[in-house]
Amino acid sequence: MHITVAKFGGSENVLTIDIASDLSLKDLKAVIEAESDFGIKADEMSLFYEGKFLEDDSKTLAQCKLNDYDLITCQRSTLRNGAMPEATTTLRRNMDARDPRQLFEMLRSNSEMLQQIRRNSPQLVDAIQRGDFNKFMEQIAAQSPEMQQRMELDRLASLDPFDPEVQRRIHDIINMQNVQENMEHAVEHAPEVFGHVVMLYINCKVNGHVVKAFVDSGAQMTIMSKACAERCGIMRLVDRRFSGIAKGVGTQKILGRIHLAQLEIEKNYFATSLSVLEDQPMDMLLGLDMLRRHQCVLDLHKNILRIGNVVETSFLPESELPTHARLSGNTPDVDDYEFDRPESPVQSTKRIRSDSHHESRLEQSTTTTSTSTSSSFPEDSIKHITKSGFTREQAIEELRLSNGDATKALVSLMTKSLSVPKRKR
């Protein structure tokens, strides 16, 4: 078998040797000394495999579970005549035994190990040299949550083991240790589970207006926000007899239902119904009713939404998503929608005040804009259009495009708001 040996701290000091798998570690050290230019004698050599010290020189490579072309690290022992392996073994044994007092005494008698520890924990070394065991335990506990749990377990073990409160605390600590081990296992073997995914959005048009729709196969019905319905000019079609409460992650007030609307995807037209919600963070959500009706397929491998057998549209990348839907966006509305997080009364009060202040500023801004814009056209022309169910902003915009002709503007708006053409029988 082939073994690659690297000298610790030297990227260029690498040696590959061909040896038998039944060779002992002691003989391997002799081979390394003879064939390498590491400058380390066999009796001063320490070998490490996958970060673990190979301490028993009588073991063979096969017994150490070394495979072909595995890498082992070689370095000079800090103490001669095997003192370093003994100290390392003692340290490991003490840690496994969970005996802080024995560890404390062992470190006090090992000056070279204290010098190594001082680089990262000078306060810990000072406590050891002063013989202050309590300070030593404080430093250990501060650096290791596991040590804190062990100390708590030791304290609880000295109390009445039949006390229900003691049993509950021990159960909580053991359960927390299991949770921590599970998380560490996930970080090591499945780190991808800690990532975040971009939500599925597509580009579409509703009544000729561009909308970024969220595709949600877990939603029962297709919904649209009140603001988006007003922007698309279909708010006048809302049947308020279908008002109610939408329940899911939280609750939302349903203003009513638009029984039929025209949805355009990739220049193809589809009929859909819409439930209009009063306070909805996203403009539009394509629910299961729409997806089932048109036999949609969410192809995550190709990153497309397939509608029937003819239409395919790509899911949007994060750069094209609405601001609140991006992973970098942290708006309160999105957080409240995505997760049902409890909030403190102080946080709730701050959020309500912030929302009220924002709405107040928005109303002032809208009023100012409307007043300044309405002066360009006669008020009678604007009212003539708004009486037909269109918003003031739509009336002003269409009057601008029609050069002030109210009749032409009204006809244009009514043409744009036409629903899906009837199918030929």
Automatic annotation (TrEMBL):
Signal peptide: none annotated. PROSITE patterns: UBA, UBIQUITIN_2. This is DNA damage-inducible protein 1. The keyword rRNA processing does not apply. Keywords: Aspartyl protease, Hydrolase, Protease, Protein transport, Transport. Residues 322-389 are annotated as: Disordered. GO terms for biological process: protein transport; proteolysis.
